[in-house]
Amino acid sequence: MKLLKAVSAAALLAFATAAPASAQETVFMSTQLRPIEEAQKVREIILRGAPGNPTYVTEQPPQLTVRMRAEAAASRRTVSLVGALHGELQPLLPAGALDDISDVAARLADRGIPANLMELGKLGGTTQAYIPWMQATYIMVANRRALPYLPAGADVNALTYEQLKEWAKNVRERTGQRRLGFPAGPQGLMARFFQGYLYPSFTGSAVSAYRSAEAEAMWVWFKDLWQYVQPNSASYNFMQEPLMADEVWIAFDHVARVLDALRQRPNDFVAFPAPAGPKGRGYMPVVAGLSVAKDAPNRAGAVALIEHLTLPRTQLLTAAEVGFFPVVRADLPADLAPGVRLAAGAIAATQNARDALVSLLPVGLGERGGEFNKVYNDTFQRIVLRNEPARAVLDREAENLRAIMNATQAPCWAPDAPSRGACPVN
Amino acid sequence: MTARRLVYYAGIAMICAWILVPIWLIAVGAIGGRQGVFLWPKSLWPREFSFAAVELFLRIEGVGKALWNSVLAAALTMVLSVALGAPAGYALARFAFRGQNAYRLLILLTRAFPIAILALPLTVSFIRWGLYDTVFGVALVHTALALPFAALVSSSLFAGIPRELEEAAWVFGCTRLQAFAKIVLPLALPGIAATAIFAFVISWNEVFAASVLTVRERTLTAYLLTVLSESPLHFRFAGGLVLILPSVVFIFAVRRYLFAMWGIANR
């Protein structure tokens, strides 16, 4: 009975403490910088002294969509500022959850945010839906012990896919281990490798040439590569872990997902751009943006926070602390931590490569972005892991891809040539 | 005789090791430092001692409040689900009424819908009713999830208490309520406590509803556990250790009631 009494006392207390929060604060909800250490750095370092009394809350992407739509439907708001990836903000616009922040964009005109990034922030419309916040891309990381096995004449900073295969083959033949790794686990970002790297490099397209003869040859090539790939790849979400465990020697992943390995053991790893194929060195920049919620409880606070986060000083701090790179004009300082400097070097080498071929993030797919990724993941699983014939799989999955394109009427984005109406799947 | 004893003690040692070795390995991962978790082969003794990971985990802003919210939500869930579930269980056990079996099935139906589908309408309604972002709101959803369990377990519990005892109390002049309070309740209490503990655990572990329905008033699972899976390995060990120890202590403290639930202490 004592237990029951204590419990009912606790219950009463719960009613008493469930009071509304102060009106002054600005709730800043972000799908980025979620891991504990990063979130802690945002709270303690990046947002220190920021205006608007920010409360930094992290959220998984699916929950963000549910919450923002629910708050829009019930027209009562708690979240003022939203920080998320381009693709995660996109479905929020048609749901009526994002405010027009063209006025903020005008105030930030002197920050030197590149025009093409600002244009992305309009999400295909005429008004500004988000302000670019930070950017990243995907890089390759290799253990220094793998370098002796590089094929003759290969430059790690200007690798081709053929050389990558030969490299992985050498490693396997001489160490007996499959030590090339990809993040093909359930939370891994493997679909982006196909959309932004493999397809553009081999076919010069991500959508139009989905089932072309080049694409078929590419998949056959990739399946052949798989015999040198660590079979545990199907469960890797973050490549930094297998890299640090020495299970994988050569890896591809999002820079934020290998940064910990580079930070912890900067002398053991090298970072370099993704390889090039016959059509160029495909790469995909990743952009995170800041949006103000429609009818935000504290719009002034949210705007002040955007101004704080896009200050060159804050942007540099963000790069040094969490490894996302500035969107504004700001030169990285010379005293950057060695791990971050490795990552920054690989990103610069990618962007400045002569054969660089930029793939934009999918534009105009709205909430069907997940299905779009599934087409590429399914294609990979069926051809490479389940040994189905490439031609038949491509023909079948092309129908799914075409259905998504027709339903959303999304026009082609780079590297595909611009289209009138829905992007065709030839 | 000695051979039998040996087997007996070996069995005990094996069962203890079965439980304790994984916990020990988690502890080694948590205090063995950042690099330690990647060493292979694993050593059973950490090469370096560092409480930095555990410390950082405990120092994270808002962990204390989230912990408090978790306890409140779980306690509320416990009270509500017993208060609603036990009478339903009593009715199911003692009275024969039309549609009894259908009712039993219907109770389970609340668990048939995945909460991810209900999330959007639920959140909209909660915002309109002012329950959004409150611990009480989270407790209500958790009660809905724990209720089928509470009702069905307490019904089998009451069914196991002979009706004759209650009838004897009536014969000696007790009212229905008195008979229940003086005869049935004391007999059922250990089982009800076990039901309450399970309601507590259900609420403690639930993530999705707790994270969709709250912004600032997060429970510990919503606040930390989801991001824990994306954190570096040694943090996961630190978080695991910090979260395992209280529950081991809790289970140890209430083990008598847990056994009661399976009807061991009652007989």
Strand-helix topology:
The complex is a heterodimer of chains A (about 425) and B (about 270).
Chain A: H1 2-17, E1 26-30, H2 36-46, E2 54-58, H3 61-74, E3 81-85, H4 86-89, H5 102-107, H6 115-120, E4 131-136, E5 138-143, H7 161-175, E6 180-181, H8 190-203, H9 213-225, H10 240-244, E7 250-254, H11 259-264, E8 269-272, E9 281-283, E10 286-292, H12 299-309, H13 312-322, H14 338-352, E11 356-358, H15 369-385, H16 390-408
Parallel strand pairs in A: 1-2, 1-3, 6-7, 9-11
Antiparallel strand pairs in A: 3-10, 4-10, 5-7, 5-8
Chain B: H1 2-31, H2 33-36, H3 52-59, H4 63-94, H5 100-108, H6 115-129, H7 135-159, H8 163-171, H9 176-205, H10 208-212, H11 220-228, H12 233-253, H13 255-261
Helix pairs in contact in B: 1-12, 3-12, 4-7, 4-9, 4-11, 7-9, 8-9, 9-13
Q: What can you see in these coordinates?
A:
The complex is a heterodimer of chains A (426) and B (267). Chain A is 43% helix and 12% strand. Chain A is an alpha/beta fold and 426 residues long. Chain A folds into two domains: 23-135 and 286-333, D-Maltodextrin-Binding Protein, domain 2 (3-Layer(aba) Sandwich); 138-284 and 358-408, 3-Layer(aba) Sandwich (D-Maltodextrin-Binding Protein, domain 2), CATH 3.40.190. In chain A, the strands form three sheets. A five-stranded mixed β-sheet of chain A has the order 2-1-3-10-4. A four-stranded mixed β-sheet of chain A has the order 6-7-5-8, with helices on one face. In chain A, helix 2 (36-46) runs antiparallel to helix 13, helix 8 (190-203) packs across helix 15 and helix 9 packs across helix 15 (369-385). The longest helix of chain A has 19 residues, at 390-408. Chain A is globular, with a radius of gyration of 23 Å. Chain A starts with a helix and ends in an 18-residue tail after the last helix. Chain B folds into two domains: 1-50, no CATH class; 62-261, MetI-like (MetI-like fold, Orthogonal Bundle), CATH 1.10.3720.10. The mean pLDDT of chain B is 84. At the A-B interface, helix 1, helix 2, strand 2, helix 3 and helix 10 of A face helix 4, helix 6, helix 7, helix 10 and helix 11 of B.
